[in-house]
Amino acid sequence: MHFDFNEEQRQFADALKRWIGRDYGFEQRRAIIGSEAGTSAAAWATLVELGMTALPVPQAQGGFDGGALDLFVVMRELGRGLVVEPYLATVLGARFLVLAGADTAHAAALLERVAAGDLKLACALGERQSRHDLRDIATRAERDGAGWRLSGRKSAVVHGAEAGVLVVSARSGGAQRDETGISLFAVPADAPGLQLRGYRTLDGLRAAEVVLDGVRLPAEALLGAPDAGWDLLDAGADHGASLLCAEALGAMEALFDATLDYLKTRQQFGVPIGKFQVLQHRMADMYLHLEQARSMAMLAAVKLDTLGSADSAERRRVVSAAKYRVGQAARFVGQQAVQLHGGMGVTDELAAAHYFKRLSMIELTLGDRDHHLARFMAQPGFQLAA
Question: Which residue intervals define the domain Acyl-CoA dehydrogenase/oxidase C-terminal in the entry (predicted)?
Answer without folding.
Answer: 228-373
